[in-house]
């Protein structure tokens, strides 16, 4: 049965009645309708009256496509860009007609309330499925259904893609719902485009409805899962996205569709949350699924592991990347060199650096400093200085980190005199680059060499230059005095430290006490013990020194005081005390 719809764009009257069946061409029992000008079909009222009881207004028009859909009144403003379309985009004529051309999507006018539709399903009403579709509401307002003259699913899907890509979400939603109400199936590409539009507009409810529709129709693709996981992660957090991902993996049908891009999405989501354990689990699951990681996969893995301080995992991901024949990016290789520096894998770092140079990648001062630092920590001072010469030949200027790495390399290799020589060279040519860290490396060399006079000179230079002197700097000078057996000088440095309101730490007290014990300054030792807070390590060190110097009585006195304060002696202290008791 053909349905006459008052809201159809081809109607000329206002009615809603059923017409008798159309007869065959060339005659028959039915009534034959002939098209008139403008591509419309006009109905003679007398023909209709003769064929049945239905009453029709004279001059009414019949829709040329079916089914026509009745819809409740639509409130709100319509999108101006979704109007009447021609197949070729031709405009309508001045009389409102299109010359008989079929059109794809028409705005349907609101059905007048005077029509005999009372909410039930009767003549001229939409089927129950269409009524349910009519009641669907999106985040952008009530869904509106339209009369579709175009019946080709591929053509309508292309139009849906174009609307979605233009972010015309209201118009795209109307077209999608109209296709479904007309029994037409949009393509998977069109559905993904509309889903992507919802995600861009942060319409999670609409995105979830589209996802459920595609999943129910078995139209979901890897891109579908990628889009919906991103939407859930952005709106509800990575935990909800991970829960959905686990559900997808548990389903046998969807598990086959999940590709490496979906894994990349979840790795990125968990990486933003700094949850490296979940990232590692996803990485293992990717390999168990017999999927090969892409360049983006390993870029994400290395970056996340480096940011989370998991250098070993970062290096493992990089090695797997090379085994799969992928060329790492410049940023990844720089991150790997930094990780190798932290893990002490200088050979791997050097090989990675050579790979960068061979590939013609751009180097910078940070990369050179990282390499010098890695070589210096490994005691490869000669290679570190070769890297320094390569740095200068590349037109780069060394900075504070460069000199720090070089001084550390020399100190690590036991070349303390060379440290002092290089430090004074820096002082002569790059005075503005000197900082407390460079001074401390030089003071460490003074302590190792017992150069207490040199240490005092450097300490005075630090005060003169306005640098803030820390307890570490004072400790190195006191340590140099201890090595040189200058207990009185060590005490003066200790007093200077207190006068400068620099709080001594445990290492300070241990060093100055050892210096006083070896200098037989017993009264000073007792005075320092009265000043310091109770500390087992300090009392143990005093007892050890006193016993070694033969001051058993004083050692016993300190031991008794130690026990009275509830401090616990170590094994060496107990051994000394037992030996003292045995000899008595």
TrEMBL record:
<feature type="repeat" description="PPR">
    <location>
        <begin position="435"/>
        <end position="469"/>
    </location>
</feature>
<dbReference type="GO" id="GO:0003729">
    <property type="term" value="F:mRNA binding"/>
</dbReference>
<keyword id="KW-0677">Repeat</keyword>
<feature type="region of interest" description="Disordered">
    <location>
        <begin position="87"/>
        <end position="148"/>
    </location>
</feature>
<dbReference type="Pfam" id="PF23276">
    <property type="entry name" value="TPR_24"/>
</dbReference>
<feature type="repeat" description="PPR">
    <location>
        <begin position="364"/>
        <end position="398"/>
    </location>
</feature>
<feature type="compositionally biased region" description="Basic and acidic residues">
    <location>
        <begin position="89"/>
        <end position="101"/>
    </location>
</feature>
<feature type="repeat" description="PPR">
    <location>
        <begin position="399"/>
        <end position="433"/>
    </location>
</feature>
<feature type="domain" description="Pentatricopeptide repeat-containing protein-mitochondrial">
    <location>
        <begin position="171"/>
        <end position="279"/>
    </location>
</feature>
<dbReference type="InterPro" id="IPR051240">
    <property type="entry name" value="Mito_RNA-Proc/Resp"/>
</dbReference>
<protein>
    <recommendedName>
        <fullName>Pentatricopeptide repeat-containing protein-mitochondrial domain-containing protein</fullName>
    </recommendedName>
</protein>
<feature type="repeat" description="PPR">
    <location>
        <begin position="259"/>
        <end position="293"/>
    </location>
</feature>
<dbReference type="InterPro" id="IPR002885">
    <property type="entry name" value="PPR_rpt"/>
</dbReference>
<dbReference type="InterPro" id="IPR057027">
    <property type="entry name" value="TPR_mt"/>
</dbReference>
<feature type="repeat" description="PPR">
    <location>
        <begin position="470"/>
        <end position="504"/>
    </location>
</feature>
<dbReference type="Pfam" id="PF01535">
    <property type="entry name" value="PPR"/>
</dbReference>
<feature type="repeat" description="PPR">
    <location>
        <begin position="535"/>
        <end position="569"/>
    </location>
</feature>
<dbReference type="InterPro" id="IPR011990">
    <property type="entry name" value="TPR-like_helical_dom_sf"/>
</dbReference>
<feature type="repeat" description="PPR">
    <location>
        <begin position="329"/>
        <end position="363"/>
    </location>
</feature>
<feature type="repeat" description="PPR">
    <location>
        <begin position="152"/>
        <end position="186"/>
    </location>
</feature>
<feature type="compositionally biased region" description="Basic and acidic residues">
    <location>
        <begin position="132"/>
        <end position="148"/>
    </location>
</feature>
<keyword id="KW-0809">Transit peptide</keyword>
<feature type="region of interest" description="Disordered">
    <location>
        <begin position="19"/>
        <end position="46"/>
    </location>
</feature>
<feature type="repeat" description="PPR">
    <location>
        <begin position="187"/>
        <end position="221"/>
    </location>
</feature>
<dbReference type="Pfam" id="PF13041">
    <property type="entry name" value="PPR_2"/>
</dbReference>
<feature type="repeat" description="PPR">
    <location>
        <begin position="294"/>
        <end position="328"/>
    </location>
</feature>
């Amino acid at each position: 049965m053909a349905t006459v719809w008052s809201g159809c764009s081809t109607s000329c009257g206002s009615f809603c009645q059923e017409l008798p069946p159309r007869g065959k061409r060339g005659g028959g029992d039915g009534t034959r309708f002939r098209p008139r000008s403008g591509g419309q079909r006009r109905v003679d009222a007398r023909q209709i009256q003769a064929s049945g009881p239905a009453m029709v207004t004279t001059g009414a028009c019949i829709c040329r496509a079916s089914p026509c859909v009745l819809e409740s009144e639509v409130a709100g403003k319509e999108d101006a860009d979704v109007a009447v379309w021609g197949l070729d985009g031709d405009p309508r004529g001045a009389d409102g007609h299109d010359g008989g051309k079929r059109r794809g999507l028409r705005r349907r006018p609101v059905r007048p309330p005077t029509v005999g539709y009372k909410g039930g399903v009767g003549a001229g009403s939409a089927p129950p499925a269409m009524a349910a579709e009519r009641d669907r509401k999106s985040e952008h307002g009530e869904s509106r259904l339209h009369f579709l003259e175009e019946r080709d699913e591929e053509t309508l899907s292309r139009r849906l893609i174009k609307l979605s890509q233009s972010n015309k979400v209201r118009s795209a939603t109307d077209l999608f719902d109209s296709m479904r109400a007309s029994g037409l199936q949009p393509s998977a590409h069109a559905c993904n485009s509309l889903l992507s539009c919802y995600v861009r507009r942060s319409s999670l409810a609409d995105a979830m409805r589209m996802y459920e529709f595609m999943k129910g129709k078995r139209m979901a693709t890897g891109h579908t899962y990628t889009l919906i996981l991103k939407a859930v992660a952005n709106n509800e957090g990575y935990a909800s996205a991970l829960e959905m991902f686990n559900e997808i993996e548990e389903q046998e049908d969807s598990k086959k569709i999940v590709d490496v891009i979906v894994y990349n999405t979840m790795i990125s989501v968990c990486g933003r949350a700094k949850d490296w354990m979940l990232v590692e689990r996803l990485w293992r699951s990717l390999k168990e699924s017999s999927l090969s990681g892409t360049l983006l996969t390993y870029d994400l893995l290395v970056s996340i592991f480096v940011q989370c301080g998991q250098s070993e995992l970062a290096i493992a991901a990089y090695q797997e990347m090379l085994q799969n024949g992928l060329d790492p990016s410049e940023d990844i290789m720089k991150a790997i060199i930094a990780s190798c520096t932290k893990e002490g894998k200088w050979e791997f770092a050097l090989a990675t650096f050579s790979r960068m140079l061979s590939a013609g990648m751009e180097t910078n001062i940070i990369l050179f400093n990282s390499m010098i630092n890695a070589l210096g920590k490994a005691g490869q001072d000669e290679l570190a200085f070769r890297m320094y010469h390569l740095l200068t030949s590349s037109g780069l200027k060394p900075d504070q980190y460069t000199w720090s790495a070089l001084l550390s390399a020399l100190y690590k290799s036991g070349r303390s005199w060379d440290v002092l020589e290089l430090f004074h060279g820096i002082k002569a040519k790059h005075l503005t680059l000197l900082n407390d860290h460079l001074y401390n490396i030089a003071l460490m060399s003074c302590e190792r060499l017992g150069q207490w006079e040199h240490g005092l000179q450097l300490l005075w230079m630090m005060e003169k230059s306005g640098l803030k002197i820390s307890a570490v700097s004072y400790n190195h000078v006191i340590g140099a005095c201890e090595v040189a057996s200058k207990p009185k000088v060590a005490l003066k440095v200790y007093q200077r430290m207190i006068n400068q309101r620099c709080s001594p730490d445990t290492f300070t007290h241990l060093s100055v006490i050892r210096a006083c014990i070896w200098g037989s300054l017993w009264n000073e030792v007792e005075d320092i013990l009265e000043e310091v807070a109770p500390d087992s390590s300090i009392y143990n060190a005093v007892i050890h020194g006193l016993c070694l110097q033969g001051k058993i009585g004083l050692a016993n006195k300190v031991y008794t005081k130690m026990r009275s304060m509830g401090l616990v002696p170590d094994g060496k202290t107990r051994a000394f005390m037992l030996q003292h008791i045995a000899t008595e």
